[in-house]
Design a protein that fits this description.
The complex is a heterodimer. Chain A is an alpha/beta fold. Chain A is 27% helix and 26% strand. The chains are: A alpha/beta, B alpha/beta. The interface between A and B is medium-sized, with 26 and 24 residues.
């Protein structure tokens, strides 16, 4: 198998036109990846004899043997997982090295705490590493800077602090669970992968910041599991991280900022964006992004949705339908459109599984993207020492995620008694957060956070 | 909410729903209160095994009769409860255990159970992946009609059938008080309203102690956190559940390919905590690998906790309270409530409807703990 340095197994396969990575368990249908960031598990393959490897985040290494696995595989004969566990103790564990987690880790380390930051990807930066567009928002929070550059800046800052010994970074490592700790401490199991081998770490920490981000939403329609149906983020990952074209002709579903920005990036990569369909009667994203698409002549159809993707083993086309004011399909409005890629930009759901394990109070807040942990303005949940930041605390922007991360980092440090002007910093960051949420596009998160405040009040009453 | 009922059952697990079905089909006006959702307690967290190989007569009798019901239950309830009989292989590690096993098998055979004693070589005929030396076994007992069923599907099948016979099931409804006059039950109060009744069945699992306290009845039960792991799916390798009373381990491979099992946790202590322990995971993994070394190359996928509602003799507490007419115990199942629930709910419904009692019900009355000597169930795992 050919590929470039830095490829994942799945990206190298895509570059060669191989989109079917596995088969569905019950009906034997072809499956390709949907999320591209290790969350959807529809890219499991047998790698060097080891089954169930997530090929979208597994590095492509020299001489690797990759096979489509049987639905119920044989037990592997490979030698792995034979190493003794390692025990680590830190002040703060940060789960997730995206904008929120990195900001939290940097802020906490600056306060003098000993921080461990773990992320299951091969690079730090979370979703920033595929965001080639310039950020909006406040000049304090990197407005005008491209996401990829922000990731580089944060990494630089992190590396400086790593030298001081206050931060340890574990990449290609998954926090698989939290467990009962002793004396008020939290205990975690982390699997650190090396090549396709792995080592178990038992980590004890006094506080933890959960900055695990979010997962892309799937949409219900016939054929939504065909290879060629991707989350918008997965398409961005393929194009902007690995330099691989996801297809030649794309239908984009969703005209929020993600749908608009990714459509534009697809055009820049020389891929045809046939149209953008949006179920809502208005375009959800910024006018400036929509205008860019219009200039290219890409139609943005509001009150339209997808009801089917068809094709034998991969997407060959879709059926689009017009919706009435009650969001119901209008009879006779079906239109068949040939394409090889469907891109879903229909929102995100917070990744909250670790939070559930702690037993923190979770509540359904639609404006936050689903179930989220109740948290106070220090980003602390209802379990002492457990903080949240970024999309895992409610879907928002990378810019607010960074500020939330800073607040969580400073607050966690304060709780442990580290205080280098921390209280003033916290105040400053809170102001910054309010400023970022002030505009009309901050309405949804404003509502979400207000609801969370109220639910927390009710719980404490 | 209804204002009165013949019987109120507290607890929407397998015991409560099974009893609701057995009562409703006999025309009893029955009502179930569950403070959370159906199967939200021990039922939904259990290992799902169904074993008839017990050391005490009462447990063996209940389990054997239950298997006969399980065999026809999908048909009876009109829903597939995924009952399968792959057998249970019980490891024997030393002479003392062999002596006990011979005694158990003798008793079980008098109850009509088909069960055999294997030597160490016979073990691999049943489960080829076992390392007989690693598990330090000198033999095993094997009963081919033991097996497992899906606890969620079984509970919901019971609940749905009960509703078809007119039972009312209220979930997310918490019992806050129980009304009584001097010597009998008169009603139940919940956070959603109250209901008049003369019979209350306490099937509240680890919370049964709190329910009993409301009416001033003490129970000796202790809640103990238990843990289970599940692995990735693999090709079917064995059908039997493998257990050891000495090591406390049990594990089996489900039809879908994953291996599910448990073992007493090194940090096991009474209480209501639900967070899992890392020491369990490691103890379970290392013991599992000692039993079946080929499993060392597979990943754990899930790890969860549940509870055993444990009594001093590891046998359930069933039947009416002597000084309080209409207050009926149905708890203390000590980790094996699911597998004996079909017969338990049948016996209790016979008692409630016909006043009919039985040797098993009499022997498992709460008053047995007043005696100095109680017979202990020896054959427990997890």
């Amino acid at each position: 198998m050919d590929g470039l340095k830095g490829d994942s197994i799945a990206s190298a396969l895509h570059a060669q036109g191989i989109k079917t990575l596995t088969k569905s368990l019950r009906y034997d249908l072809p499956r390709g990846f949907f999320c591209g960031i290790g969350k959807c598990s529809s890219c499991l393959m047998r790698v060097n004899g080891i089954p169930n490897i997530r090929t979208c985040i597994a590095p492509l290494l020299e001489g690797v043997k990759v096979e489509i696995q049987d639905k119920l595989p044989d037990i592997p004969d490979a030698k792995f997982q034979s190493k003794p566990k390692k025990i680590v103790s830190v002040d703060i564990l940060v789960v997730g090295a995206g904008p929120a987690g990195l900001s939290a880790a940097i802020e906490a380390a600056k306060q003098g705490t000993k921080v461990l930051i773990a992320d299951e990807n091969l690079q730090i930066g979370g979703q920033l590493i595929k965001q080639t567009h310039k950020f909006f928002g406040s000049k304090y929070e990197k407005a005008g800077t491209r996401g990829i550059q922000i990731a580089v800046d944060l990494e630089k800052e992190l590396k400086e602090l790593e030298k001081s010994g206050n931060i340890d970074l574990m990449l290609n490592s998954t926090v698989i669970g939290c467990y009962e700790g002793k004396k008020g401490k939290h205990k975690f199991a982390i699997i650190k992968r090396k090549n396709y081998d792995s080592i178990l770490y038992e980590v004890e920490s006094r506080t933890v910041v959960i900055a695990t981000g979010a997962m892309e939403n799937m949409l219900l329609f016939t054929g939504n599991d065909l290879p060629g149906v991707y989350g918008a983020g997965a398409v961005q990952t393929l194009m902007n991280v690995f330099g691989v074209k996801p297809g030649n002709k794309v239908i984009m579903v969703g005209a929020g900022n993600v749908g608009l920005i990714v459509s534009y990036q697809l055009l820049q990569a020389g891929i045809i964006v046939d149209r953008v369909v949006e179920a809502a009667p208005i375009i959800g994203g910024y006018h400036v992004h929509a205008a860019k698409l219009r200039r290219y002549g890409v139609p943005i159809l509001t009150s339209h949705s997808i009801i089917e993707a068809y094709g034998k083993d991969k997407v060959e086309g879709v059926v689009i339908v017009k919706l009435d004011k009650n969001w119901q399909p209008i009879k006779g409005s079906k239109e068949k459109v040939a394409c090889d890629t469907v891109c879903l930009a229909v929102g995100l759901t917070p990744s909250t599984r670790l939070l559930y394990q702690f037993g923190v109070n979770m509540e359904f807040v639609p404006e936050a993207g689903g179930f989220v942990a109740l948290h106070d303005d220090s980003m602390q949940t209802t379990v002492k020492g457990v903080f949240v930041a970024g999309d895992s605390s409610g879907i928002e922007e990378a810019s607010t995620a960074m500020v939330e991360g800073k607040i969580a980092g400073v607050s966690a440090s304060l709780l442990l008694g580290f205080n280098k002007n921390a209280k003033d910093l916290k105040k400053q960051y809170k102001k910054e957060l309010d400023r970022l949420r002030a505009g009309p596009f901050g309405e949804k998160p404003r509502i979400a956070k207000r609801k969370i405040d109220k639910l927390l009040e009710k719980k404490n009453a | 909410m209804k204002s009165k009922a013949d019987v109120v059952i507290i607890g929407g697990g397998i015991s409560g729903c099974g009893l609701a079905y057995n009562l409703a089909r006999r025309g009893v006006d029955v009502l179930v209160f569950e403070k959370n959702y159906l199967t939200s307690g021990a039922t939904g967290a259990c290992g799902a095994g169904i074993r008839q190989q017990w050391s005490t007569y009462e447990n063996a009798e209940l389990a054997i009769a239950s298997v006969k019901i399980f065999e026809k239950l999908s048909n009876e309830l009109g829903e597939d409860i995924e009952f399968r009989q792959g057998g249970y292989l019980v490891a024997i590690h030393d002479r003392k255990e062999m002596k006990q096993a011979i005694k158990n098998v003798e008793m079980q055979r008098t109850l009509g159970l088909q069960v055999e004693i294997l030597d160490s070589e016979g073990i691999n005929d049943i489960v080829p992946i076992l390392d007989v030396k690693g598990m330090k076994a000198i033999g095993a007992t094997f009963c081919p009609t033991d097996g497992h069923a899906n606890p969620f599907k079984t509970t919901f099948a019971y609940a749905n059938a009960a509703k078809r016979f007119g039972a009312n099931i209220y979930t997310h409804t918490k019992v806050t008080s129980i009304k009584k006059d001097k010597k009998r039950i008169t009603g139940v109060i919940t956070d959603k309203g109250s209901v008049k009744t003369e019979i209350v069945v306490n099937a509240a699992g680890i919370w049964s102690k709190d329910i009993a306290e409301i009416v001033g009845v003490n129970t000796p039960n202790i809640p103990i956190r238990k843990e289970i792991i599940a692995t990735e799916r693999f090709k079917p390798m064995f059908e039997a559940m493998v257990i050891s009373f000495k090591d406390g381990i049990y594990f089996s491979q489900q039809k879908e390919g994953q291996i599910i099992g448990g073992i007493p946790s090194p940090e096991q202590k009474p209480g209501y905590k639900t967070i899992p322990t890392i020491s369990f995971m490691q103890h379970m993994a290392s013991t599992l690998i000692r039993y079946a070394p080929v499993l060392k190359h597979i990943n754990l996928l899930r790890h969860w906790t549940g509870f055993y509602d444990v009594t001093p003799d590891s046998r359930p507490i069933l039947g009416e309270t002597k000084n309080l007419k209409g207050f009926i115990h149905c708890h203390g199942f000590s980790g094996h409530g699911f597998m004996i629930s079909p017969m338990v709910s049948k016996l209790l419904s016979d008692f409630i409807v016909d006043g009919k009692t039985s040797e098993v019900l009499n022997n498992l009355n709460i008053d047995r703990f007043k005696d100095k000597k109680i017979e202990h169930e020896m054959s427990t795992v997890g």
